Structures are given as C-alpha cells and as structure tokens.
Amino acid sequence: MRILGVASATAALALGVAGNALACNIRDFSAVAACDDKGKGTITVTDTDASGVLATVSVYLESNGADEKLVGTDTVKGTREGATVTFSEDWAPKGQYRIHIKAANIVDEDVSPNLTAPSEACKTSETPKPSETPKPSETPSSSATPSATPSESDSTAPAATPGDNEPSPAAGDSNLAETGANSNTGTIAGVAGAFVVVGGGAVYFGMRRRGASKTG
Question: Where in the sequence is the domain holding 213, given as residue range(s)?
Fold first, then answer.
C-alpha cells in the first residue's frame, strides 16, 4: 500500500509539473518594434504558449511612466512555433510601449521590461513622384526677341536725286543753250533783213530814175 501511495503521488506531481509547463505564462509573450516593407512602423507581439490559451494583447504608448494613448488591442492564440499579432504604429525613435497580456484567469500582467523602439525611424520606400517638367513658355523670352526693326532713316539709304548720277553738261553747252534762248539774235536778224529789203528797193528805184533821165 505504501508503495502504491508513493507511486500515485509521484504521478500526480509529474502531471502537475507538466500541466504548469503547458499552462499560459507571461514569459510566453514578447514584443518588437520594426518597419514593414513599405517603411511603416509596426509593433508585433509573439505568443509561444503551446497550450493555445486565447490571450488579449493591449499596446500602450508610454510618456513619463504613464499611458499616453492606446495603440490597439487584439487577441492571439499561442502555438509552440509562435503566433503573432501586429499593430500599425508610427513609433518615434526610442519610444516606450507597455504590452499588457490577459489570458483567461491565468495571466493578467505586463510584458517586462517595456518595449523600446529602435533609435532610427522608419524610412519610407515609396518612390517619390517625379516633378512635372515645366512646359516651355510659348512666349519667347526677352533675350530671344528679335531686335526692333531699324527706322527708315537708319536702314533706308537716301533716295538718289534725279540727275545725280548723270554727267553734268559741259560748261560750253550750258553757255550756248543760254545764249540761244536769252540773246537778241532773232531781233537783230530781222532788223538786218529789213535794211537789206529797204536798201534793195532804194537801189531799184535809183536805177529806174537813172534810166528815165537818159531817155528824155
């Protein structure tokens, strides 16, 4: 009987130890702050509770030892390999976060120590949109504006005065033209002609008288 009792006690102790080993424990939970493939901040909590107890995970941003805001709350069912739950959070470098776990009546406490974010913020991987290429101005710039059309006085040579390119008449020609137009040659010739006629008439009458005298 004594041997049977000792064996029963040993079996119960072994089962108790095994049960405690499989039970949900705060040490089954861990958290990390990282950046996703888009460069956004995240906080991921991992549950390695092999017993698969459903746990509620709450994440708080800390400021001066107090909760500043609730980042989010979600549930996770642990596995031996580790089940995760992820919260989107644009965490600041070295920001402090409190992770609280509540699993049925087994666990109701914080992951210790608090989560500290990395010292460098996430860098977005989104390719910035190229700036629009400015369209060339339709109006030509002042430097391309053609110079003003030169004024007529600057660009047009003075019109040639008629006769400027013709040889000037010789001095003799000019005097002859002026003499023929302005002299009294015609008048003098007329008067001389009249004298010739009068003289001829006088000679004619004189000869007739002379003939008449001889006849008588």
Answer: 184-216
